[in-house]
Amino acid sequence: MLGLPDDVKRKYDLSSLRITAASGSALPGHLATEWMDTFGDNLYNFYGSTEVAMASIATPGEMRAAPGTAGKPPLGTVVKILDNQGEPLPTGQTGRIFVANSISFEGYTSGDDKERLGSMVSSGDVGHFDEDGLLFVDGRDDDMIVSGGENVFPREVEDLIAGHDRVEEAAVVGVSDPEWGQRLKAFVVLKPGGTLSKDEVKEYVKQGLATYKVPREIEFIGALPRNATGKVMKRELVE
Q1: Beta strand segments in the chain, E
Q2: For 25-59, how does the pLDDT look when each residue is reduced to its tens digit (9 = 90+)?
Q3: Domain 145-238 homologous superfamily, CATH
Q4: What is the pLDDT of residue 146?
Q5: For 135-187, how does the pLDDT look when each residue is reduced to its tens digit (9 = 90+)?
Q6: How far is Cα 115 from Cα 184, in angstroms, rounded to an integer?
Q7: What is the pTM of this model?
Protein backbone atom coordinates (compact mmCIF):
# COMPACT_ATOMS: atom_id res chain seq x y z
CA MET A 1 0.00 0.00 0.00
CA LEU A 2 2.82 2.39 0.79
CA GLY A 3 4.22 1.77 -2.68
CA LEU A 4 1.06 3.01 -4.40
CA PRO A 5 1.23 6.40 -6.14
CA ASP A 6 0.04 9.30 -3.98
CA ASP A 7 -2.90 10.04 -6.29
CA VAL A 8 -4.14 6.45 -5.84
CA LYS A 9 -3.85 6.60 -2.05
CA ARG A 10 -5.77 9.87 -1.97
CA LYS A 11 -8.78 8.20 -3.62
CA TYR A 12 -9.59 6.20 -0.49
CA ASP A 13 -10.99 7.44 2.80
CA LEU A 14 -9.20 5.54 5.57
CA SER A 15 -10.32 7.79 8.41
CA SER A 16 -12.27 4.88 9.94
CA LEU A 17 -9.21 2.61 10.03
CA ARG A 18 -8.56 1.95 13.72
CA ILE A 19 -6.15 -1.00 13.86
CA THR A 20 -3.53 -2.33 11.46
CA ALA A 21 -1.75 -5.43 12.73
CA ALA A 22 1.78 -6.29 11.62
CA SER A 23 3.36 -9.68 12.34
CA GLY A 24 5.22 -12.56 10.75
CA SER A 25 8.48 -10.79 9.92
CA ALA A 26 10.51 -8.09 11.60
CA LEU A 27 9.02 -4.62 11.06
CA PRO A 28 11.74 -2.06 10.23
CA GLY A 29 11.39 1.15 12.21
CA HIS A 30 11.43 3.41 9.17
CA LEU A 31 8.59 1.42 7.61
CA ALA A 32 6.46 1.72 10.76
CA THR A 33 7.02 5.47 10.81
CA GLU A 34 6.20 5.82 7.11
CA TRP A 35 2.96 3.87 7.57
CA MET A 36 1.81 6.02 10.48
CA ASP A 37 2.77 9.25 8.72
CA THR A 38 0.69 8.12 5.73
CA PHE A 39 -2.28 6.28 7.23
CA GLY A 40 -2.37 7.46 10.84
CA ASP A 41 -1.33 6.06 14.21
CA ASN A 42 -3.20 2.77 13.91
CA LEU A 43 -0.28 0.34 13.58
CA TYR A 44 0.33 -2.42 16.14
CA ASN A 45 3.42 -4.61 15.91
CA PHE A 46 2.90 -8.16 17.21
CA TYR A 47 5.94 -10.27 18.08
CA GLY A 48 5.84 -14.00 18.74
CA SER A 49 6.16 -17.39 17.09
CA THR A 50 4.31 -20.65 16.60
CA GLU A 51 6.17 -22.06 19.61
CA VAL A 52 5.84 -19.22 22.14
CA ALA A 53 2.60 -17.69 20.75
CA MET A 54 2.24 -13.99 21.60
CA ALA A 55 5.33 -12.52 23.26
CA SER A 56 4.86 -8.75 22.98
CA ILE A 57 2.83 -5.98 21.35
CA ALA A 58 4.03 -2.52 20.33
CA THR A 59 1.45 0.27 20.28
CA PRO A 60 1.55 3.20 17.85
CA GLY A 61 2.75 5.47 20.65
CA GLU A 62 5.60 3.12 21.51
CA MET A 63 6.68 2.90 17.87
CA ARG A 64 6.55 6.67 17.56
CA ALA A 65 8.87 6.94 20.55
CA ALA A 66 11.10 4.00 19.58
CA PRO A 67 10.70 2.91 15.94
CA GLY A 68 11.46 -0.77 15.47
CA THR A 69 10.42 -1.84 18.95
CA ALA A 70 8.46 -5.04 19.53
CA GLY A 71 6.77 -3.38 22.51
CA LYS A 72 5.97 -4.96 25.85
CA PRO A 73 4.65 -8.38 26.94
CA PRO A 74 0.84 -8.56 27.28
CA LEU A 75 -0.86 -9.47 30.54
CA GLY A 76 0.02 -13.02 31.57
CA THR A 77 3.24 -13.20 29.55
CA VAL A 78 6.80 -12.97 30.85
CA VAL A 79 9.75 -12.22 28.56
CA LYS A 80 13.35 -12.47 29.72
CA ILE A 81 16.70 -11.84 28.05
CA LEU A 82 19.14 -14.58 29.08
CA ASP A 83 22.79 -15.35 28.46
CA ASN A 84 24.15 -18.71 27.30
CA GLN A 85 24.12 -19.96 30.89
CA GLY A 86 20.47 -19.05 31.36
CA GLU A 87 21.17 -16.03 33.56
CA PRO A 88 19.26 -12.73 33.11
CA LEU A 89 21.13 -9.97 31.30
CA PRO A 90 21.02 -6.27 32.23
CA THR A 91 19.03 -3.64 30.35
CA GLY A 92 20.49 -2.83 26.95
CA GLN A 93 22.49 -6.03 26.58
CA THR A 94 21.61 -8.46 23.80
CA GLY A 95 20.83 -12.05 24.69
CA ARG A 96 18.47 -14.92 23.97
CA ILE A 97 14.73 -14.23 24.21
CA PHE A 98 12.75 -16.63 26.41
CA VAL A 99 8.98 -16.45 26.87
CA ALA A 100 6.58 -17.89 29.44
CA ASN A 101 2.79 -17.88 29.13
CA SER A 102 -0.17 -20.25 29.25
CA ILE A 103 -0.47 -20.71 25.47
CA SER A 104 3.01 -21.77 24.35
CA PHE A 105 3.30 -25.05 22.48
CA GLU A 106 3.96 -28.41 24.15
CA GLY A 107 6.47 -29.67 21.59
CA TYR A 108 6.69 -30.76 17.97
CA THR A 109 4.83 -33.81 16.68
CA SER A 110 8.22 -35.39 15.92
CA GLY A 111 8.97 -35.43 19.63
CA ASP A 112 11.53 -32.63 19.38
CA ASP A 113 11.20 -29.46 21.39
CA LYS A 114 12.50 -25.92 21.74
CA GLU A 115 15.02 -25.20 24.46
CA ARG A 116 13.26 -24.74 27.79
CA LEU A 117 14.38 -23.21 31.06
CA GLY A 118 11.73 -24.01 33.64
CA SER A 119 8.45 -22.61 32.32
CA MET A 120 10.22 -20.46 29.73
CA VAL A 121 10.56 -21.39 26.06
CA SER A 122 13.21 -20.08 23.68
CA SER A 123 11.82 -17.98 20.83
CA GLY A 124 14.92 -18.67 18.75
CA ASP A 125 15.62 -14.94 18.59
CA VAL A 126 18.03 -12.59 20.32
CA GLY A 127 17.12 -9.15 21.58
CA HIS A 128 17.30 -6.61 24.38
CA PHE A 129 15.16 -4.36 26.56
CA ASP A 130 15.70 -0.61 26.68
CA GLU A 131 15.40 1.55 29.79
CA ASP A 132 11.66 1.99 29.21
CA GLY A 133 11.06 -1.76 29.21
CA LEU A 134 10.54 -1.94 25.45
CA LEU A 135 11.68 -5.10 23.70
CA PHE A 136 13.84 -4.98 20.58
CA VAL A 137 14.43 -8.10 18.49
CA ASP A 138 17.97 -7.95 17.14
CA GLY A 139 17.82 -11.08 14.98
CA ARG A 140 17.78 -14.86 14.99
CA ASP A 141 20.15 -16.49 17.44
CA ASP A 142 21.83 -18.30 14.53
CA ASP A 143 22.10 -15.14 12.36
CA MET A 144 24.94 -13.55 14.30
CA ILE A 145 28.01 -12.73 12.22
CA VAL A 146 31.42 -12.79 13.93
CA SER A 147 33.82 -10.54 12.03
CA GLY A 148 37.28 -9.87 13.41
CA GLY A 149 36.13 -10.95 16.87
CA GLU A 150 33.16 -8.55 16.88
CA ASN A 151 29.56 -9.79 17.00
CA VAL A 152 27.17 -8.24 14.49
CA PHE A 153 23.45 -8.92 14.13
CA PRO A 154 22.43 -8.24 10.51
CA ARG A 155 19.05 -6.70 11.25
CA GLU A 156 20.31 -3.37 12.59
CA VAL A 157 22.52 -2.94 9.52
CA GLU A 158 19.68 -3.95 7.19
CA ASP A 159 17.24 -1.56 8.85
CA LEU A 160 19.68 1.32 8.61
CA ILE A 161 20.41 0.76 4.92
CA ALA A 162 16.71 0.26 4.13
CA GLY A 163 16.02 3.61 5.79
CA HIS A 164 17.95 5.45 3.07
CA ASP A 165 15.54 7.41 0.89
CA ARG A 166 16.90 5.80 -2.28
CA VAL A 167 16.82 2.20 -1.00
CA GLU A 168 13.86 -0.16 -1.28
CA GLU A 169 15.24 -2.97 0.90
CA ALA A 170 18.46 -4.66 1.93
CA ALA A 171 19.81 -7.93 3.29
CA VAL A 172 23.12 -8.48 5.07
CA VAL A 173 24.94 -11.81 5.30
CA GLY A 174 28.28 -13.08 6.50
CA VAL A 175 30.68 -14.50 3.92
CA SER A 176 33.97 -16.29 4.54
CA ASP A 177 37.04 -14.10 4.84
CA PRO A 178 40.62 -15.39 5.31
CA GLU A 179 41.58 -12.43 7.51
CA TRP A 180 38.41 -11.62 9.46
CA GLY A 181 36.78 -15.05 9.62
CA GLN A 182 33.63 -13.52 8.18
CA ARG A 183 32.96 -10.20 6.52
CA LEU A 184 29.67 -8.41 6.10
CA LYS A 185 28.17 -8.29 2.63
CA ALA A 186 25.09 -6.19 1.89
CA PHE A 187 22.68 -6.86 -0.95
CA VAL A 188 20.86 -3.63 -1.75
CA VAL A 189 17.72 -3.08 -3.82
CA LEU A 190 17.32 0.52 -4.96
CA LYS A 191 14.00 2.28 -5.44
CA PRO A 192 12.92 2.82 -9.06
CA GLY A 193 15.04 5.60 -10.51
CA GLY A 194 17.31 5.66 -7.46
CA THR A 195 21.08 5.83 -7.81
CA LEU A 196 23.63 5.12 -5.13
CA SER A 197 27.28 4.09 -5.14
CA LYS A 198 28.84 1.37 -3.01
CA ASP A 199 30.96 3.95 -1.20
CA GLU A 200 27.86 6.02 -0.44
CA VAL A 201 26.20 3.00 1.16
CA LYS A 202 29.27 2.32 3.30
CA GLU A 203 29.52 5.95 4.39
CA TYR A 204 25.82 6.01 5.25
CA VAL A 205 26.22 2.97 7.52
CA LYS A 206 29.39 4.40 9.05
CA GLN A 207 27.49 7.53 10.09
CA GLY A 208 24.91 5.48 11.99
CA LEU A 209 26.76 2.45 13.35
CA ALA A 210 30.15 1.37 14.64
CA THR A 211 32.87 0.96 12.03
CA TYR A 212 33.03 -2.83 12.42
CA LYS A 213 29.36 -3.02 11.38
CA VAL A 214 30.00 -1.39 8.00
CA PRO A 215 29.68 -4.00 5.21
CA ARG A 216 32.98 -4.55 3.44
CA GLU A 217 31.16 -5.62 0.31
CA ILE A 218 28.09 -4.13 -1.40
CA GLU A 219 26.12 -5.68 -4.24
CA PHE A 220 23.16 -4.03 -5.95
CA ILE A 221 20.45 -6.45 -7.10
CA GLY A 222 17.00 -6.14 -8.63
CA ALA A 223 15.12 -7.99 -5.88
CA LEU A 224 15.79 -10.09 -2.80
CA PRO A 225 15.02 -13.82 -3.15
CA ARG A 226 11.97 -14.78 -1.09
CA ASN A 227 10.10 -17.97 -0.30
CA ALA A 228 6.36 -18.54 -0.64
CA THR A 229 5.66 -16.75 2.66
CA GLY A 230 7.68 -13.69 1.66
CA LYS A 231 10.71 -14.27 3.88
CA VAL A 232 14.14 -13.46 2.46
CA MET A 233 16.13 -16.57 1.54
CA LYS A 234 19.60 -15.55 2.67
CA ARG A 235 21.09 -18.93 1.81
CA GLU A 236 20.59 -18.13 -1.86
CA LEU A 237 22.44 -14.86 -1.40
CA VAL A 238 25.40 -16.57 0.26
CA GLU A 239 25.56 -19.21 -2.46
Answers
A1: 20-22, 43-49, 53-58, 78-82, 95-100, 116-117, 120-129, 135-140, 145-147, 150-152, 167-177, 181-190, 217-220
A2: 778 888 899 999 999 999 999 999 989 999 999 99
A3: ANL, C-terminal domain (3.30.300.30)
A4: 87
A5: 999 888 878 888 888 889 898 899 999 999 999 999 999 999 888 899 999 99
A6: 29
A7: 0.76
Fold for 6-140, please state it.
Luciferase; domain 3 (2.30.38)
Q: In 3-state terms, what secondary structure has residue 50?
A: coil
β-bridge mates for residue 96, sequence order? 82, 126
The residues spanned by each domain of the chain are 6-140, 145-238
C-alpha separations of 90 from 85, 98, 208 in Å = 14, 14, 24
| 6-140 and 145-238: identical CATH topology | no
Q: Is 70 exposed, middle or buried (0-12, 13-18, 19+ CB in 10 A)?
A: buried
